[in-house]
Write a structure and sequence with these properties.
The structure is a single chain. It is globular and about 45 Å long. The protein contains eight helices and no strands. The protein has one domain. By secondary structure, it is mainly alpha-helical. It comes from Microvirga vignae. InterPro entries: Ubiq_cyt_c_chap, Ubiqinol_cyt_c_chaperone_CPB3, Ubq_cyt-c_CBP3-rel. This is Ubiquinol-cytochrome C chaperone.
Length: 181
């Protein structure tokens, strides 16, 4: 009986693996060096948020149980954010307030990116990414092309493939001004 406490839950393992693959994709050096996301704590949050939003959009298009996977994946993201805040030394009493800000930032970005991704509107997405991911007024055209390609690519994948192989995000360097010529 006690050993059942130590058994791995296959569903939880699959979600953890999927989340790890998305997080790893969000850390690709080309996103920072070639596409201009600042290599800072905020920049890394922006990159992870963008990749999570794209993965969740793909899951929304798939039949059940993709909706359960999306919920579990979102939970994994917020557990990771909570753990990261605690590792940085944020006190237990402050973590819930910070998590509300993290959630508001994440869902705000999803609301900002969704219409442009739905419409395939590179310029609108570039504006939103410029404001959020790059933290400036200049549009992030290369990053927008990357996000649109990633969104399109993930929507062509089945849930089984997504869970077995993970999401295949494009190579960021292919979307620089030189790479897109």
């Amino acid at each position: 009986m006690i050993f059942s406490l130590f058994r791995k839950d296959p569903r939880r393992t699959a979600i953890a693996t999927l989340y790890a693959r998305i997080a790893n994709a969000s850390r690709h050096p080309g996103l920072y060096a070639a596409l201009g996301i600042p290599d800072t704590l905020e920049g890394r949050f922006e990159s992870l948020s963008l990749h999570m939003i794209i993965a969740l959009r793909a899951l929304r298009q798939l039949p059940p149980p993709a909706d359960d996977v999306a919920k579990d994946l979102t939970d994994a993201f917020f557990r990771d954010m909570d753990a990261s805040l605690r590792e940085m030394g944020v006190g237990d009493t402050v973590v819930p307030k910070r998590m509300k800000k993290v959630a508001a930032a994440f869902y705000g970005r999803a609301q900002a990116y969704d219409p442009a991704l739905n419409a395939g509107d590179e310029s609108a997405l570039a504006e939103a990414l410029g404001r959020n991911a790059l933290g400036g007024d200049a549009p992030a055209a290369s990053l927008a092309r990357y996000a649109l390609a990633a969104d399109k690519g993930l929507k062509a994948v089945t849930l089984d493939v997504l869970l077995e192989s993970g999401p295949a995000f494009p190579v960021p360097e292919a979307f620089t001004e030189e790479g897109s010529r």
